[in-house]
Amino acid sequence: MSTVTQRPEVNRPSVRWWRRPWVGPLALVAVMFVVYSLPPYLTLDPALSRVQLSEGMEVHYPLLVGHVLFGTVAILSCCFQVWPAFRARYPRAHRLIGRAYVFAGVLPAAVLAAAVAVFAPFGPVAVASNLTLATVWFGCTVAGWRAGRARRFGDHRRWMIRSFVLTVSTVTNRVWTPLWAVLLAPQLPTTYGGDMAYFISTIAGLSTWLGWVVPLLVSQWWLDRRPRRARAAAR
To answer: Which of 76, 98, 88 is nearest to 171 (CA)?
Structure first.
């Protein structure tokens, strides 16, 4: 009779916070972004909106407020979800915050983002980008949640990393906007014929696409690279 030898479980030590130096800066950026972007919408005054509103579309502002509120839940909660030491030490809190991230953060924020995109006065290129982003963000998050429920934790982690990258893309979008404004400003009187609306829609289109596509591609490269590194280390 053959016997099966079970490998003893190895308690992996939790990763100290200083071994993940990006956790602190990420949380700081998230908090600073929320402190800057959220307060004007808590007043419920459309005149204080940091996003240009469509004229004659009164529904645009309440949809935007809802998106900002749910998006705030998503961007703050995701900082805890990608913190390795927190996940290892507080698994129950990780699950509870994860539910808040999905159901009180990303999913309603993504649905409202799609609605807001339709009314945004930044041209069809930006509208197409924001609709695509909302769909991909929603899909990645649902896929990650379903994988976690099925205890496919490897798939859960990969999908949630993609979801996290799309969540913080609202910050990277703000980086691209002033960059393109500076680069394209000399062409305003020539290429754009002094048409400010055309100029702004071009900047918005470039910034919205690059703001989430570039981080998503980088994250996918990183995810694909890690298995190769693990196999190389095992040799």
So the answer is: 76
Alpha carbon distance 93, 99 (integer Å): 10
Per-residue pLDDT reduced to its tens digit, 169-180: 998 888 899 999
Give the separation between CA 40 and CA 61, rounded to whole angstroms: 12
> Tens of pLDDT along 156-205?
999 999 999 999 999 888 889 999 999 999 999 999 999 998 999 999 99
* Strand residue runs (E) in the chain: none
Determine phi and psi for 22, rounding to 5 degrees. Answer: -80, -15
Q: DSSP of 32-93, one letter per residue?
A: HHHHHHSHHHHTT-GGG-SSPPPTT-TTHHHHHHHHHHHHHHHHHHHHHHT-HHHHHH-HHH
23 Cβ contact partners less than 8 Å away, ≥ 6 residues apart:
17, 79, 82, 83
- Residues found in the chain: 235
pTM of the model: 0.83
- Give the E-state strand segments of 56-192 in sequence order: none
Phi then psi dihedrals of residue 4, to 5 deg: -105, 120
